[in-house]
Amino acid sequence: MTSSVDDIKQLREETSCGVIDCKKALDEAKGDFQKAKEILRKRGLEMAAKKAERTAKEGRVEAYIHHGNKIGVVVEVNCETDFVARNEDFMVFTRDVAMHIAALAPKYIKREDIPADVLAKEADKEIFAKANCLLLQAFVKDPSKTIGDYLNDLIAKIGENIQIGRFVRFKVGE
Q1: For 109-165, what is each residue's pLDDT tens digit?
Q2: For residues 15 and 130, what is the distance between their CA atoms, to the nearest angstrom?
Q3: Do 47 and 69 fall into the same domain?
Q4: 137 lies in which domain range?
Q5: Quick one: which of 21, 78, 125, 132 has the fewest CB in 10 Å?
Q6: 155 shares its domain with 121
Q7: If residue 165 lies in a helix (H) or strand (E), which one and from where to where?
Q8: What pLDDT, on the 0 to 100 scale, is given for residue 16?
Q9: Are residues 126 and 167 in the same domain?
Q10: Residue 121, number of CB atoms within 10 A of its CB
Q11: How many domains does the chain divide into?
Q12: What is the pTM of this model?
């Protein structure tokens, strides 16, 4: 089945994937738009996994001060090249992550960062991890995906290893 130009264009607009990738996904999904989106998402996850081993020594530090100046966040997001660090999509991602941290106050970046003794005290370890690990939290601007999903989508789009290095959240009185 040959995909129409309009279908390819629409899929590209919704996913930010390349034209050829969108065409291949639509062809593979036999024109099923939702299935094509899922195919692209899986490919993005595979691509992110392959890039995870590459060194990410560039990046940017993003600061966010919430309205009222009561909450502030500083987050370090690393990538492989300074070119990507200046990319608009990367900068939007760092701003979104800083704002998300201000809103939901995660304590850890990923599940592996939770100390064993802290996790042992929790009755439901999965709920605790989802509430306290940045990459597992539902993205505050789009609850249908997690910060980890958002990160993997960006990795697939940009084509570099990107990692959230560290963050600190300040709140007046805490």
Answers
A1: 999 999 999 999 999 999 999 999 999 999 999 999 999 999 988 888 888 889 999
A2: 25
A3: no
A4: 58-171
A5: 125
A6: yes
A7: strand 163-171
A8: 62
A9: yes
A10: 9
A11: 2
A12: 0.73
